[in-house]
Amino acid sequence: MGNLLVLVRHGQSDWNEKNLFTGWRDPDLTEKGIEEAKAAGRALKEAGYTFDVSYTSVLTRAQHTNDLILAELGQEDLPVIRDQALNERDYGDLSGLNKDDAREKWGEEQVHIWRRSYDIPPPGGESLKDTAARVLPYFEKEILPRVLKGERVLVAAHGNSLRSLVMQLDKLNQEEVIALNIATGAPIVYELSDKGEVLSKKILIERDYS
Predict the structure, then answer these.
(1) pLDDT score recorded for residue 207
(2) CATH of 3-187, one of 3.40.50.11810, 3.40.190.120, 3.20.20.70, 3.40.50.1240
(3) 112 catalytic per annotation
(4) 10, 64, 72, 126: which is the annotated catalytic residue?
(5) Of 36, 88, 126, 158, which is the active-site residue?
């Protein structure tokens, strides 16, 4: 087996459920989100995976997901590294707004552009390109070297920070990455070569994107 890297988007949060732009705001998981995180941990355990280190963001929903996964694995004592570089995309002035209210205020087309374009940020916030510009250097400096040393690494983070990683790992172009959706609580298991190239990829739980 090659070098192991597993990516997991946090379980459903309170604001996912309420259809709010979340970004760097800090709601916790819903009951459904807790169950999604536990299910991710069980799926990893059933597949025989264990880890040497985990990485997560400084936001509660990702940390809670990470903790629940490790509890299911019986690895509560695993070293956990938390860094703002893995935070969700900052939605700026949209943060905390209901997505339908935002469409009423700025128009459907403008909100769609902010949400789904690669390099157009919402007011006061980050584009996906901006998010990748902080996620990828951190990944290449801090996370990938540990994977390539043979450490088994878990990353519990967010839809857009993980899209940035998948974009690089899967060699996606801008059009492909803006069409990419990552489901909550569904582990993405990568096996990498010693050069960091993807040898295999599988998603352990098929779950609808939300």
Answers:
(1) 77
(2) 3.40.50.1240
(3) no
(4) 10
(5) 88
Rounded Cα distance between 143 and 55, Å, is 8
pLDDT at 208: 67
Beginning with the edge strand found earlier in the chain, give each strand of the sheet holding 80-82 in spatial order: 80-82, 53-56, 153-157, 3-9, 188-192, 198-203
Residue stretches of the annotated binding site for substrate: 9-16, 22-23, 61, 88-91, 99, 115-116, 159-160
64 catalytic? Reply is no
Average pLDDT of adjacent 10-residue blocks, the chain of 210 residues: 92 94 96 98 98 98 98 98 98 96 95 93 97 98 98 97 97 93 96 96 82
